[in-house]
Design brief:
By secondary structure, this protein is an alpha/beta fold. It has one domain: 3-Layer(aba) Sandwich (Rossmann fold). Helices cover about 45% and strands about 20% of the residues. Helix 4 packs across helix 5, helix 5 runs parallel beside helix 6 and helix 9 runs parallel beside helix 12. It is globular and about 55 Å long. The chain starts with a helix and ends with a helix. Bound molecules: NADP nicotinamide-adenine-dinucleotide phosphate. The site of NADP nicotinamide-adenine-dinucleotide phosphate has 23 residues, from helix 2, strand 5 and strand 8. The site of NADP nicotinamide-adenine-dinucleotide phosphate (NAP) has 23 residues, from helix 2, strand 5 and strand 8.
Length: about 325
């Protein structure tokens, strides 16, 4: 049996004081829970009183500070060992094609990560973990993609590249800068996962680009376990994806099977290519390898592919729906 990341961490990692931004987002909520469960002391950046209460209920200490105020952040970061930057402002699915909607994300990713790294350096924080995306690679068809493949420079990728470069500034200054390139999230809390489950229940599944192209995915609990495991990783860039990227055809079939429906309609298919660079991150074929991170940390995904991840997510969504009808 494989050791879970939680096992690896609880056995070997001393408790660290970790500052998390984006703590209330899709991945952030899982990360805060995983860090607290592994015995780490977590400070969570929040923007509202309601979210402050939510992170407190998870066992973290909320802190209100601006992501764009270096002095405020430097004070907040004092005494922390690690920063985990998960803050971003990705547009909703409906606004995904809008350049304007992406500007907020660019502000959070570019100006936010720059300010946060400046503050981390000023506060003497030794380790900086920056979330990035596996969709940053060029299309490699059926070939496996490792971290040695140079990242692409398409417009939507620029903000991730800047955030990555900022994390590497920590390494250049003598600390440990770690970049985690996550695959497409699957899990309750990731809005697109929930939207895709709803559509699949109506027999509609999405395939973006060539159905024979690959999609690399990660369940949110495995993504969070990877962040915990990264606390002990050497500086560098790592892909955080499951073991078996599926073709988009198989990914759609796995989603439909998870909700017990036959897919009648596969949309938008190759028509998505017409949207050009705006959806380039989703239309290319990305068969990404997690080998480097597994070797560096002992982390292994609990859900080896999107088949198991969709099954678990559909079951969890079903349980949520059941609870809602009981109230
Ligand atoms: N979705 C995917 O499949 C996927 C896959 C790979 C990588 N990623 C990357 O993972 C990152 C996190 O994604 P996610 O799905 O967790 O995003 P999300 O659910 O939208 O969460 C974003 C988080 O950032 C915070 N935030 C946004 N703007 C902020 C600001 N100006 N100041 C401080 N905090 C701010 C939000 O706080 P509030 O709660 O207060 O709004 C929230 O906690 C993104 O950069 C994304 O590119 C996503």
């Amino acid at each position: 049996m494989r050791a879970s990341a939680a096992d690896v961490q609880s056995n070997h990692t001393p408790a660290r004081k970790v500052f998390v931004t984006g703590s209330t987002g899709a991945i952030g909520r899982y990360v805060v829970a995983a860090l607290v469960d592994s015995g780490h002391e977590v400070t969570a950046l929040v923007r509202t009183a309601e979210k402050s209460a939510a992170v407190r209920a998870q066992g973290a200490t909320p802190i209100a500070a601006s992501l764009f105020d270096r002095d405020e952040l430097t004070v907040g970061l004092a005494g922390h060992d690690v920063v985990v930057n998960l803050a971003s402002a990705l547009p909703s699915t409906r606004q995904f094609l809008s350049d304007r909607a992406w500007r907020r994300n660019e502000h959070a990713r570019i100006d936010g990560s720059t300010t946060l790294v400046d503050a981390a350096l000023a506060a003497g924080v030794g380790t900086f973990i920056q979330e990035s995306v596996a969709m940053i690679y060029p299309d490699k068809g059926a070939d496996w993609i490792t971290e040695d493949v140079p990242a692409d420079r398409y417009p939507r990728a620029i903000c991730s590249r800047v955030a990555e470069d900022n994390a590497h500034r920590i390494t250049a200054a003598g600390g440990t800068g770690i970049v985690l390139r996550f695959g497409v999230f699957c899990g309750i809390g990731a809005t697109h996962s929930e939207e895709m489950l709803t559509a699949a229940r109506r027999h509609i599944v999405s395939v973006l680009g060539d159905a024979d192209g690959y999609v690399s995915t990660i369940h949110l609990t495995d993504a969070a376990a990877a962040v915990v495991a990264a606390l002990t990783a050497p500086a560098g860039t790592y892909n955080i994806v499951d073991d078996e990227p599926l073709t988009k055809r198989d990914y759609a079939t796995a989603l439909a099977a998870a909700v017990g429906k036959r897919p009648w309609l596969r949309v938008p298919g190759r028509a998505a290519l017409l949207a050009g660079h705006r959806v380039t991150s989703l239309t290319r074929s990305l068969r990404v390898s997690n080998h480097r991170f597994r070797t560096a940390t002992g982390w292994a995904p609990h859900y080896p592919s999107a088949r198991e991840a969709w099954r678990a997510t559909a079951a969890a969504a079903g349980a949520c729906r059941h609870r809602a009808t009981q109230v």
